[in-house]
Batch of 2 targets.
Target 1
Amino acid sequence: MFEETPTIAIVDDDDSVRRALARLLTASGYQVRTFSSATEFLNEGFPLEASPGCLLIDVRMPELGGLELQSALMNAGTQASIVFMTGHGDVQTGVRAMKSGAVDFLLKPFTDDELLDAVNRALVRNAETRVEHREIDELEHRSAKLTRREREVCTLVVAGKLNKQIAAALGTSEKTVKVHRSRVMAKMEAASLAELVRIVERLNRSRSAAGPGRPPPDVRRDDDAPPGDQQHRMSGSAG
Amino acid sequence: MEAPAEANGSRRIRAVVAALGVALAYYAGARVGFALTPASQPVSTLWPPNAILLGALLLAPVRSWYWVLLAAFPAHLAVELGSGVPLPMVLSWFVSNCAEALLGAAGVRFFIDRPVRFDTFRRVAVFVVFAALLAPFLSSFLDAALVQWNGWGTAGFWEVWRVRFFSNVIAIVTLVPAIVTWGNTDIASLRSIGWRRMLEAAALAGGLLVVCAVVFSRSSLAVHAYAPLPFLLWAAVRFGPGGASAGLLVLALVSTWGAIHGEGPFVGRSITDNVLALQLFLFVTYVPLMTLAAAIRQRDRAERDARRSEQWLNLALGAGQVAAWDWDVGRDRASWSENFPEILGRGVVDRRTFLESVVADDRPAIESAITQAIDQVAPYEVEFRTVREDGAVRWLTGKGTVVRDAAGRAVRILGVNADITERKAAAVALQHEAALRESEARLRVLADAMPQIVFTARPDGTMEYFNRKWYEFTGRPTVAIDEDAWLDAIHPSERAAGLKSWSDNVKASRPHEHEARIWSAQSRTFRWHLIRALPVHDESGTVARWYGTATDIDDHRQAEEALRKNDWHLRSLRAELENRVARRTLELLRTNETLRNEIEVRRRVEVALRASEERFAKAFRASLDAIAIASQPGFRIIELNDRWESTFGYARDESIGRTIDQLRVYASEHDQDRISQLMRTRGYVSEQEIDMRHKDGTALRAVLAAETVEVSGEPCVIMMVRDITERQRAEHEIAMQRNELAHLGRVALLGELSGALAHELNQPLAAILANARAAQRMMARDDFDRVEVRAILDDIVSDDRRAGAVIQRVRALIRKDETELHGVMPNDLVADVLELAHSDLIQRSVTVVTRMSPTVPEVLGDRVQLQQVLLNLIVNACDAMADNPPEHRSLFITTKAVAPDAIRISIADGGTGITAEPIDAVFEPFVTSKRNGLGLGLAICRSIVDAHGGRMWAVNNAGTGATFHVLLPVVPAVTDTLAASNGDDARSDTVAISGSPSTA
């Protein structure tokens, strides 16, 4: 399932716990990297998007807690599969963690089965996410190829507008529209309108899910600024 | 004085003459009697001799009666014997005649003194009863008996008696008054009768004679017998008893003569009857007439007396110094003679004004004198002062007699008031003079006794008197008073000056002083004398006399001379002396002052002492501590207060006298010995907390102190015991409750930290589990790394320990142990607490910055409780910063030694700060800013810190947040054992923090 060995990042300030978990996961066949604090983790620049893996984060840590790390990652737009663990879990924290997309919330002390199960799920999610991302990226790539006019046409086509209407809306001829349309179809590599719609919807979904950190590509095209420079730093890709 | 011989002589002659007269009269009377005897009668109608005899007896003094009777005897003999009567009869008749005369005379003389006069009714009555009736009555018995015995005559006893009786009565009645009256009349008074009276008498006599002769010489009616009456009345009225008696005599004689001869109104019947009638007539005529004459004479005399009295009174009053008064007691009205106003010095006088004019002080005397007079206690005699209208005060005397009625009650008082002012003044003056003379005499005696020369001089300066000393000293004879010659005794040099000085002073009435030499006879020299004289004034202010002395100052003078010669010496000596005296005086004054101050101080001290004693006594009695005073040695109780009694149950009576040891108030003998030892060696015991015992065995916890004191000079011990059993119990309870509360606080705290603690436990548990499972997995493979497994096991063990430690801490906090004092390092304290709160701090994202001084010394305290305090503060600080952004949640904990004996732990946050006003209120119970907090945490913390002898307070930071400070005392090297026990010999106060009672 995995193209490469997933790496699990353990972030916990308690040395003993960190060591023990590392041992356990290693003994279970995973690659493990340990971090004593969230800050260390961020500074280390763990290749979250580049390589498969998941995070095993302790909620209660000095300075930057587990949840804060999660929101930081989210703000950065990084999709990471996180398994939280805590020595003292109150419901509120757990609910918050889960609501913000954690895979699981483990209460110490937990058995190895619980841990491995959660890790597995996280890895699977991670893999899925990666795939998803790749596909999205592909689509984005395709979408990026569109000119402005083409984008506009695309939007209207997807909206179910007739060529006639599109032409009227854009102030151009139907023929032009048709041309654009076909170009869009080609660039987007959509076999049918339905597919195009699916693609666009998918793209839209992914863009909106990414949050404000990820601006819509069409606006970016007109700017001279290189697309997604700052935001993509984490993922290490220059999209 | 006449020679008694002469008197005797003349008297004898008179006596003889009288005797002869009597005899003659007797004889003549007898003759007359014979003549008046009726022919056939043996007894005469009128027998004069007896009457004559009686008259003579009445005229003569009693001592001469024998002489009178003796004189009559021969006459009688002559008369009777000549008639041929036998001697026995004659003698018998004499005897009876004498008897009659004697009886009558005696009777009359008993009541009437010589000269006998019939000039009062009383006298006439006496005469009639005794002389005229009784004497003849009785003597006739005798006569009749004698006649019978003698056998004389033919008449019977009673006849003789009757005849004799009546004839004698008449004889006496008619003759005796005349005899006595005329016998008492003296020639001189007869001569003084004026010719007019003589004429009248003559006319009267003539008329009477004529009438009598007419009436009684012929036959006439009985009524004619009254013809002479007017004349008799005339005689009685005008000439009194004398006239009446004379007239009666004439009447008697004439009528009798007539009757004898059968003429007159008394005829016609038997001679006897006639005689009887005549006698009766005469008697009846006589008595009223004599009485009338006597009454008239009485009245005349009374009138004359009254007139004379009045004349005398007027004479006396006329002199002007006496007033008579008459006070009617019943009506209380007084009347005075006319001259009284003049005497009293007032215009109008009545009883009221009289009393008003009497000086108030003297009025009671008058009243009492009157009362006394009325009550017959004393005669009315009083002296009083009156004030005249012109204001002058006069002395008056009042004298009077009380006139009483028949019952003896006072009816009137008659009296006189006389002005006796002069007399009084004279008496006073006399008294004064007498006193003066007496004092003079005393003075003389004194003066003579004095060793000094004393003299007196008259106001004009002439010498009056020298005392004996003068004469002794000057050697002059004492016979002559040296009135003028005294100057000779003075030294010539001083004479002139002395005299001048003396006369000047006398003129000026100034005290005289002069030094002069006087001749001393003894030493035959002149000696210096100091002559002094003082004037003495009388009441009016003028000099009455000078009194002087002369004191011998010769020696003094000589000494003065000697001194004057050494003038400088004297002056300097004197100055020196004065100086010394002044200094001495000053010293003395100062000493006196000092002494006075001392006395004052002492007095104040005494007062203060007494006050303090009182206060002590009050304090002693009222003290809430049991106090006993015991004597040393032996601690014998001499005094104890009520509290002692109630504390130990020993009454005063059973305690005083016994020793404290005997009372067995100590719970342990060890304590007893220790206390005694301390008292012996040190003399005091301070604040020993020991167990003691009530009389009934109940245990007491007490604080004992003792001091040596001095009571009345004796060394004693005063022992004060405070029963702290209750207090201790209360303290114990408080400590228990505090512990309880602290425990609850801890529990609550743990509740708050439960999450953190759970976290702390779960971490190592998770590690252990993970490690174990990892090891199991490893070992499932054949190629497990042994080293790795060992490392795993090591980790497991240490994690287990870690967990165990947490549990232990929790357990420690939950534990409700009694407070245990140990040495605690503050820095360790902070570290432990931070461990406990570790995960909570992380959870809250609180950063802790510690600044702990390495030199902070150990403190004595209960680790758990102190941890509780710090934990509470940390939690509070985190709560305060809960709303801060995470980067502003910093907690600063510092430890520091702020004094040699104190350390301070401070916890500062950057939270909301303390809004309580005042800040200290935040430590109050139920003050909280937490939503769900009780607000007890800080209160409990403070109570823990206080129990440790420390202090806890809070301040708001300059910026944001607040800082809580905990100050704890550093205790020098105390061990557990020392902390557990208490009390030692050191005088320094040991503060026992222990909340647990030791060996209760």
Target 2
Amino acid sequence: MTVRKFRPPNRLANMIKERGGILAKDAIVAAEAGVETLREASLAALDQTVAEIERRFGKAAENRESESFEALYLLSSRIIDVGQFVSETGVDKAAVSLCTLADSLAEAGVWRWDAVDVHLNALRLLRAMGAELPAEQRSAMLEGLYQVSHHKADEA
Amino acid sequence: MADPLLPSTRINLEKATVLVLDDNGASLDILSQVVSGFGVKQLFRAESVMDAQALIRTKTFDLIISDVQMPVTDGIEFIEWLRREGGENNRYVPVILVTGHTRTSQIFKLRDAGSNYVVAKPITPKVLLERIVWVAREERQFIECDSYIGPDRRFKHEGPPPGSDGRRKDDLPAEVGEAQAPNMSDDEIANMMRPAKVQV
């Protein structure tokens, strides 16, 4: 096998050190301020995603057996995308756990609806009052979710 | 290894042309706001790999930031395409992948996609700026072979993986081995560290 090793020109390297520009601390402040303007829209998007998961994968969903693991995975990852706005509630971590669960279900090829339901219940609860929960309770709840999502059938 | 980013470090991204790719509009907005906050003026947004590929065929980018989890074609396949078929102007561009979760089946694929760095979502401006500066300053070689195109995946100089002799001519054994000379004295070590005036 032929392996070629070389150093291609890195235009970014030259640009970033050109005269002018801004201090890193100011760049971070400006970026944080820009992100903050998206808080409301991002939370609305998050709530829509949670509602869609509930509608398609919740207990009341008419035909949830026919849904794909992939769809649940992608929807859960959309919650993580805007997770910086709900980090104090634990919703972002619950969504990570739901992604792990969807990935694990896809590998097994079998739904574990009790595991999905407990994640949806937790998402709803954390979104509503996660920030007000005592930190230990929130951690215990998330730890429970991790155990559910990391559970393998052959470990039972 | 590049120096850490200090708050007082001056960065200039005004002339950089940056592509951000994410299928989730809310996430794309966040990425765009962060990158704009860093002073980037030429920012291009794409909501699908197909849109990104169309942009790559017509523009030259200095940095690409892409999501991993996307329907139809994901970020891993996109980077693999970029490194092989992205054209001479864009094939070697620094790429930062962002992902909220990595599927078990994709851990190695993500490592072997050819990106310069992977950043966890939700992104924070501080972490993303640190990584941008890191990829701008890094001096890793590019590797091009049948199975991989991208920056050298070994960049910590930790020697070959345990239990293997390494595949490269310059690989040193992981084990240090027996000492070949007596221990240095404290004075000898101190002398090596001592600042000295040099004539240049």
